[in-house]
């Protein structure tokens, strides 16, 4: 999917000698600007039919809530997994914790 004026998200990971993540830099502006709660509402039919929904903390708080509320509205019992992506952004789970069955 392309959208004029929004660049593809990129990430650079640095791993230590044991294969563990030592540092990372990410640019996720596209996720923050394009995946809005209104866009998610437009895509809710796809969400309704998903066997599992995975969200990550790069989504804005309104987008996270909209994603999780789509599964609730569908009464689909779709499990929601949450990827915290960073310590700072992991706090966003507070707004959707009642929907989440498994944080990464």
Automatic annotation (TrEMBL):
Source superkingdom: Eukaryota
This protein's UniProt keywords: Metal-binding
Entry annotated with the keyword tRNA processing: no
GO cellular component: cytoplasm
Keyword Nucleus: no
GO terms, molecular function: hydrolase activity, acting on glycosyl bonds; metal ion binding; pseudouridylate synthase activity
Protein name (Swiss-Prot/TrEMBL): Uncharacterized protein
Source organism (scientific name): Salix viminalis (Common osier)
């Amino acid at each position: 999917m392309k959208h004029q004026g929004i660049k593809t998200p990129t990430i650079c990971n640095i791993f230590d000698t044991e294969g563990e993540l030592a540092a990372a830099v990410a640019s996720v502006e596209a996720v923050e600007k394009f995946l809005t709660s209104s866009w998610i509402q437009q895509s809710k039919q796809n969400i309704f039919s998903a066997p599992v929904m995975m969200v990550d903390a790069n989504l804005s708080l309104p987008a996270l809530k909209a994603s999780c509320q789509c599964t609730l509205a569908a009464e689909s019992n779709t499990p929601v997994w949450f990827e915290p992506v960073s310590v700072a952004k992991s706090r966003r789970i507070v707004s959707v914790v009642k929907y989440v069955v498994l944080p990464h």
